[in-house]
Automatic annotation (TrEMBL):
InterPro entries: Nucleoside_phosphorylase_d (IPR000845), Nucleoside_phosphorylase_sf (IPR035994), Purine_phosphorylase (IPR011268). One of its GO terms (molecular function) is purine-nucleoside phosphorylase activity. It catalyses: 2'-deoxyinosine + phosphate = 2-deoxy-alpha-D-ribose 1-phosphate + hypoxanthine; inosine + phosphate = alpha-D-ribose 1-phosphate + hypoxanthine; guanosine + phosphate = alpha-D-ribose 1-phosphate + guanine; 2'-deoxyguanosine + phosphate = 2-deoxy-alpha-D-ribose 1-phosphate + guanine. The lineage of its organism: Eukaryota, Metazoa, Spiralia, Lophotrochozoa, Platyhelminthes. It is an enzyme of class 2 (transferase). This is purine-nucleoside phosphorylase.
Length: 140
């Protein structure tokens, strides 16, 4: 993208809210990320991908660990895309739509389901579209 003259990358995603102050439907600007693959010493750009098993949500134990580490959101993507764009010299704006509250209790009667994520995304899509449009207008 940089070679094509792109200066800005705007990325959006759906994410589960870990921060107790976040509510379903909130839009959160991402200021940092925790990149677990790089902590393992393995190259995240090498490997096979199989989407048939996803989406797979975090377990309550993983959610508690993420909170301890300081994570406010749990999402499937964005970290790698924004890292590469940043390394290429692009200005990156990333935001998450909180589509569900992450379950941290082992015995919770709630179950995270993809339908909830899709429903919240549909309800807030117009607001997110307006926000991205305004951001693009401000960048021009």
């Amino acid at each position: 993208m940089k070679l094509l003259g792109v200066e800005y990358l705007i990325v959006t995603n759906a994410a589960g809210g870990l921060n107790p102050q976040y509510n379903v439907g909130d839009i959160v600007f991402i200021k940092d990320h925790i990149n677990f693959p790089s902590l393992s010493g393995k190259n995240p750009l090498v490997g096979a991908n199989d989407n048939r098993c996803g989406p797979a949500y975090e377990t309550p134990a993983e959610a508690r660990m993420l909170r301890i580490l300081g994570a406010d959101l749990a999402g499937f993507s964005t970290a790698h895309e924004t890292m590469v764009a940043s390394h290429c010299g692009l200005n990156v704006f990333a935001m998450s739509l909180v589509t569900n509250i992450v379950i941290v209790e082992d015995e919770s009667p709630r179950i995270t389901n993809h339908e909830e994520v899709l429903e919240t995304s549909a309800k807030r899509s117009e607001t997110l579209k307006e926000l991205v449009t305004r951001l693009v207008t401000e960048l021009e």
